[in-house]
């Protein structure tokens, strides 16, 4: 005759809760992202994602994902910029391999936003020059 083992039931519940917590934590927005999908001549960019979550809406950058927030990102697959801007389907979509300030989507969106922030507050440390984002190789 089998005896009931309540301790196994509790242990199983704890394991399931921990697994659920681990999945939720794995899906949380990252603190930092390395933008390297499109690098060619310049070094990859270490993007302080967490700092940007605090100052702008997710859809500012993830513009193809209407309604995306830090909370919904845990349940939604968030598209990386390079998924559309590495090999754009439409000719008018900016290509991230472009070096130009007017053709590269990162340069267009990031630098323009940073310049606007500096206009509002000169003490802002928003980078606007190449070497500010693309570190020189050591």
Could you please describe the fold and organization of this structure?
This protein is 40% helix and 4% strand. It contains six helices and two strands, in the order αββααααα. The chain is mainly α. The chain is globular and about 35 Å long. The protein has one domain: Cytochrome C3, CATH 3.90.10. About 12% of the residues have low confidence.
Put the structure in a nutshell.
This protein is mainly α.
Write a concise keyword list for the protein shown above.
138 residues; mainly alpha; Cytochrome C3; two-stranded antiparallel ribbon; 6 helices; 4% strand; globular
Write the layout of secondary structure elements.
Layout (H helix, E strand, L loop, with lengths): L5 H22 L5 E3 L9 E3 L1 H5 L4 H4 L20 H4 L19 H16 L9 H4 L5
Antiparallel strand pairs: 1-2
């Amino acid at each position: 005759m089998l005896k009931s083992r309540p301790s196994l039931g509790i242990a199983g519940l704890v394991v399931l809760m921990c697994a659920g917590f681990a999945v939720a934590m794995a899906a949380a927005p990252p603190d930092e992202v390395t933008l390297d999908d499109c690098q060619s001549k310049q070094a990859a960019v270490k993007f302080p994602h967490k700092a940007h979550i605090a100052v702008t809406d997710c859809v500012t950058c993830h513009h193809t994902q209407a309604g995306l927030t830090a909370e919904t990102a845990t349940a939604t697959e968030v598209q990386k910029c390079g998924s559309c801007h590495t090999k754009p389907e439409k000719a008018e979509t900016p290509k991230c391999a472009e070096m130009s300030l007017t053709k590269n989507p990162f340069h267009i969106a990031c630098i323009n936003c940073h310049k606007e922030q500096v206009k509002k507050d000169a003490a802002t440390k928003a980078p606007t020059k190449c070497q500010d984002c693309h570190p020189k190789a050591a």
